[in-house]
Amino acid sequence: MKVDHYENFPVASVALPARFREPVRWVYHFARSADDFADEGDAAPQTRLAQLGEYRDLLAAIGRGETPAHPVLGPLAGVIRRYDIPLALFTDLLSAFEQDVTVTRYATYAELADYCKRSANPVGRILLHIFGQATPRQLAWSDGICSALQLINFWQDVAVDWQKGRVYIPQEDLARFSVSEAHIDAQRADSRWQALMQFEVERARRLLQAGAPLGLALPGRLGLEIRLIVLGGESVLRQIHNARGDVLAQRPVLGWRDWLRVLPRALLPRLAGRVVRDMESAQR
Predict the structure, then answer these.
(1) Do residue 77 and residue 207 come from a single domain?
(2) Across residues 100-121, what is the average pLDDT?
(3) Is 2 contained in some domain?
């Protein structure tokens, strides 16, 4: 299960039914390449925004019924039409990538949640359209999972993002726990930092818990895929908790042993349905 590059995509997972892998792959290529425009290399901000602007123009062409002569957006046009995916979900993703070029701090959690709404939630919604499962309740559950995954990625990548000049922990949270950005720079995981990270872990856990029923509602291998994603997110949160919030010296990651522990629980929906509740008890 590939979740280490574009964290919210279950690309080429063995759990994903084969008929969905091709359309999901093209959606992934769109998101991956657009994210690279915003994040990778040493291009100037104007260049990054111009590249994302080209994608925005190509999406507009798809909206007009055209099929761009583009190696990614061309095939994506067929996916969008075949599964009747709202174009706004893709433009929302682009707006988040554009924001990454220009915004490096978030004053409040509300601002960060708005970013997650555009950077993460569209991914789950697109997948549910491809799966033919885009009901209002399932879309809401998906939003919870995707926002949780985005927050989890922020918390495990605090040190990585610092090197890029970004801090995703809301400034109001830093102030609340009397933590400064100097903690990140000095990799100082003192008691104040630990309290802050416990707060952020709990915040992500609540979102993950809110979305977890999606893994029980979706049929067959689709449900298994979502249960694997939820359990993987839970495992990262547990690592952060067990490390007392010290994500500064070492980034928490999942290895093959972690996935071996996760898989049996994902295969048994009854156990997967209890996982986030169990996590809540373990962290208290």
Answers:
(1) no
(2) 97
(3) no
Lowest pLDDT segment from 196-200, 223-227, 241-245 = 223-227
Nearest residue to 214 via CA among 124, 154, 119: 124
Q: What is the dihedral of CA 198, 256, 12, 157, to 10 degrees?
A: 30
Could you tell me which residues are beta bridge partners of residue 11?
Answer: 2
Q: Which of 67, 83, 102 is where one domain is finished?
A: 102
How much is the pTM? 0.90
Residue 10 lies in a domain: no
- Of 57, 77, 102, the residue that ends a domain is 102
Range of the domain at 64: 16-102
Residue 50 CB neighbours (<10 A)? 12
- Does the residue 7 lie in any domain? no
Using CA atoms, how far apart are residues 90 and 55, in angstroms rounded to an integer? 10
Where residue 273 falls among pLDDT bands split at 50, 70, 90?
low
70 and 46 in a single domain? The answer is yes
Rounded Cα distance between 151 and 205, Å, is: 10
How far, in Å, are 5, 25, 101, 168, 188 from residue 246 at the CA level? 22, 34, 27, 16, 8
Q: Are residues 213 and 96 in the same domain?
A: no
CA-CA distance, 223 to 169, in Å (whole number)? 31
Q: Are residues 124 and 87 in the same domain?
A: no
Beta-carbon contacts of residue 24 (< 8 Å; ≥ 6 apart): 9, 10, 11, 16, 127, 130
Same structural domain, 57 and 123:
no
Residue 136 has pLDDT above 70, yes or no: yes
